[in-house]
Amino acid sequence: MKKKSIPREGMEPLFRKISELTRMQRIATCVGVVVVLVGLCGYFLFLPKYQRINDLREDIKSAEQELEITKAKAARYPAVKKEHEAAQASFELAARALPDKEEIPSLLTGISQAGKASGLKFLLFAPQKENVKDFYAEIPVKMELSGGYHDLGAFYDRLARISRIVNVSDFSVSSDSGGPLRISCTAVTYKFIDQPAEKDANQKKKKR
């Protein structure tokens, strides 16, 4: 197969124009051609690689930042674990101070006996509806009693000695001239709610 050759006649005008250029013009033309070739090589060959290098640098920077965050979390792990253990211990301590459902009747009986043992007379002892919170329920008991100041002080002292939590609120005192004190208050005790057990019971009821 014969190679096609460029006709010499077609190249002569170009050679003639080049020969007519001065030396400085030829040098400038050569420099311009070299600059264009270098620019094209840089654009098509080096620029994509340069962009790839920048992308890799950004990836490395992002990975280093994530590594620093992970290191910071790892450094805080012992402290977080200690805080969790302390919170768990506090929760267990509070749970032990809250009676179970089965203990509530005896606890209410204990409050009533504390009042009678202190010399107070119960005019009203009415447990109210439970107020359910997160993992416990409040059990308010409205009370009206009559007696003397010393009897009232002894009653509060006995309540404070009960191993379970009992708070007294809505306290008011009135008295007739020369008569015993009439005390009105609400004693609030608490019980622990075993939520998982209650959920299982509800699920069993639904299945039935």
Short overview:
With 208 residues, the protein is an alpha+beta fold. Helix content is 62%, strand content 21%.
Draw up the topology in text.
Layout (H helix, E strand, L loop, with lengths): L7 H13 L2 H75 L6 H14 L3 E7 L3 E2 L3 E12 L1 H13 L4 E10 L5 E12 L2 H13 L1
Antiparallel strand pairs: 1-3, 2-3, 3-5, 4-5
Helix pairs in contact: 3-4
Task: List descriptors.
5-stranded antiparallel beta sheet, 5 helices, Alpha-Beta Plaits, 208 residues, alpha+beta
In CATH, what is the homologous superfamily of the largest domain?
Ribosomal protein S6/Translation elongation factor EF1B
Helix content: 55-70%
Specify the structural class.
Answer: alpha+beta
Give the SSE order as H and E letters: HHHEEEHEEH
**Beta strand %:** 15-25%
Radius of gyration: 46 Å
What is the fold-level CATH name, i.e. the topology of the largest domain? Alpha-Beta Plaits
What distance separates the N and C termini? 94 Å
- Bulk shape: rod-shaped
Give the count of structural domains.
2
CATH architecture of the largest domain: 2-Layer Sandwich
Instruction: State the low-pLDDT regions, or none.
Output: 196-200
Main pleated sheet: 5 strands, antiparallel
Under CATH at level 1, the class of the largest domain stands as: Alpha Beta
Average pLDDT taken over every residue: 75
Number of strands: 5
Number of helices: 5
Keywords: Membrane, Transmembrane, Transmembrane helix
Transmembrane segments: 27-47
Organism: Desulfosalsimonas propionicica
InterPro entries: PilO, Transl_elong_EF1B/ribsomal_bS6
